[in-house]
């Protein structure tokens, strides 16, 4: 395969650095946080989140507008190799469940006021009769990367651009915060191999139980994926897009394009579990500034996620043992993002509330 290039439409829009040279915003943001009526740093990770939101939006008074959760679904050829306890048909069946409002992500989006958008990025079964599912198919599932590249170069580019196009529309409609989820039987295999080839982390650290493999199933998955990696000596460690085309999935490529574009448009990007993080890893290898726009919502119970988060330098908000996907971690963490923005905009300052800012040293001196 010839190396994939960055010459597509997608990468014509650069991701802006969060802090432009000469900007005084970071100091002003820190001052605004530090003058709220609380001990310095006492709101912990919420303070980091508030700071990040200000820098993403380039303002001291950020707002969350038209929050969306986008779930990309696709089928995977590798699922035919016995790497998941569930049959591939579950992908399409779950998309029908999303459309009917009955999945976990529907419940949590309703609970927290997020608009859910479901994208058919490449499901094998026919979903054209299902209302409310956007048809952005690039193909009817990928090929098995045990035998050949999952996608062609052209398919991969098409998927990246399809993901970006969805974000262009959300942005045009006034959305400035978007969470990302996925559905695809077999996709923890793609994510594990991408983590392995992009970071050099031993494959055994990257491969996990997915939807619930037992010990024997896990050993089989590891053996299949080791064979698959060995079957692609042409893949170059310095070409993330080639890795994505070879081992990825249509939903993973659309996620990669969508997250890249959301960052380029200065949207706040909410990152879900293992598979969404693997898509982000590809985007971050192409453009590391993407990460400045990302809120890591959850640490998945999938074994490799710990290593993936470490490779991204990420500290997730929640650790609940989730291993569902669908964007559930994003929906559950969204109230924390709201709280970060709310404390920044609504809390009194020491000055406005007439609260003393006396330091510990001053108090000690007074007491003497
Ligand atoms: O998001 C995660 O961390 C996560 C961890 C394990 C499984 N999943 C979900 O389970 C499916 C993939 O699992 P598997 O075993 O078929 O590879 C896919 O639909 C994902 O949404 C998701
Ligand atoms: C039932 C089911 C629901 C899911 N949601 C995301 N991945 C999933 C995998 C399965 C098997």
From TrEMBL:
Q: Does the keyword Ligase apply?
A: no
Protein name listed in UniProt: Nicotinate-nucleotide--dimethylbenzimidazole phosphoribosyltransferase
Q: Which gene encodes it?
A: cobT
One Pfam family named in its UniProt record: DBI_PRT
Reactions listed under catalytic activity: 5,6-dimethylbenzimidazole + nicotinate beta-D-ribonucleotide = alpha-ribazole 5'-phosphate + nicotinate + H(+)
Q: Which UniProt keywords apply?
A: Cobalamin biosynthesis, Glycosyltransferase, Transferase
Q: Which residues cross the membrane?
A: none
The species is Hymenobacter oligotrophus
Q: Which domain of life is it from?
A: Bacteria
MF (Gene Ontology): nicotinate-nucleotide-dimethylbenzimidazole phosphoribosyltransferase activity
Enzyme class at the top of the EC tree: transferase
Question: What EC number(s) does this enzyme carry?
Answer: 2.4.2.21
Belongs to which family?
Belongs to the CobT family.
Among Gene3D superfamilies, the record links this protein to:
1.10.1610.10, 3.40.50.10210
Q: Name one GO biological process term.
A: cobalamin biosynthetic process
Pathway it belongs to? Nucleoside biosynthesis; alpha-ribazole biosynthesis; alpha-ribazole from 5,6-dimethylbenzimidazole: step 1/2
Q: What does this protein do?
A: Catalyzes the synthesis of alpha-ribazole-5'-phosphate from nicotinate mononucleotide (NAMN) and 5,6-dimethylbenzimidazole (DMB).
Q: Which residues form the active site?
A: 326
């Amino acid at each position: 395969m010839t190396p994939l290039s960055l010459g597509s439409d997608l990468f014509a829009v650069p991701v802006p650095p969060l802090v432009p040279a000469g900007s005084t915003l970071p100091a002003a943001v820190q001052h605004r946080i530090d003058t709220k009526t609380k001990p310095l740093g006492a709101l912990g990770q919420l303070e980091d989140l508030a700071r990040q939101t200000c820098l993403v939006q380039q303002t001291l008074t950020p707002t969350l507008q038209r929050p969306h959760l986008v779930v990309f679904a696709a089928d995977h050829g590798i699922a035919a190799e016995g790497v998941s306890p569930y049959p591939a048909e579950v992908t399409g069946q779950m998309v029908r469940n999303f459309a009917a409002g009955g999945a976990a992500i529907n419940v949590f989006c309703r609970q927290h006021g997020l608009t859910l958008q479901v994208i058919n990025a490449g499901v094998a079964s026919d979903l054209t009769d299902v209302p409310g599912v956007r048809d952005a198919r690039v193909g009817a599932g990928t090929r098995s990367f045990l035998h050949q590249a999952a996608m062609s170069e052209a398919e991969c580019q098409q998927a990246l651009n399809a993901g970006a196009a969805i974000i262009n529309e959300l942005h045009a409609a006034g959305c400035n915060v978007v969470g990302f989820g996925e559905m695809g039987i077999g996709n923890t295999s793609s994510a594990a191999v991408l983590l392995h080839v992009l970071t050099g982390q031993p494959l055994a650290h990257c491969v996990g139980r997915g939807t619930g493999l037992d010990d024997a199933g896990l050993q089989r998955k590891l053996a299949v994926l080791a064979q698959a990696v060995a079957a692609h000596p042409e893949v170059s460690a310095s070409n993330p897009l080639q890795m994505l085309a070879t081992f990825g999935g249509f939903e993973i490529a659309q996620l990669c394009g969508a997250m890249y574009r959301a960052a380029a448009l200065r949207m706040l990007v909410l990152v879900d579990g293992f598979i969404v993080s693997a898509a982000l890893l590809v985007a971050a290898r192409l453009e590391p500034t993407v990460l400045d726009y990302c809120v890591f919502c959850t640490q998945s119970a999938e074994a490799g996620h710990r290593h993936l988060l470490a490779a991204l330098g990420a500290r997730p908000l929640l650790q609940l043992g989730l291993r569902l996907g669908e964007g559930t971690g994003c929906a559950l963490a969204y109230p924390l993002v709201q709280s970060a923005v709310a404390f920044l905009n609504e809390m009194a300052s020491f000055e406005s509330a007439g609260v003393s800012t006396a330091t510990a040293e001053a108090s000690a001196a007074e007491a003497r």
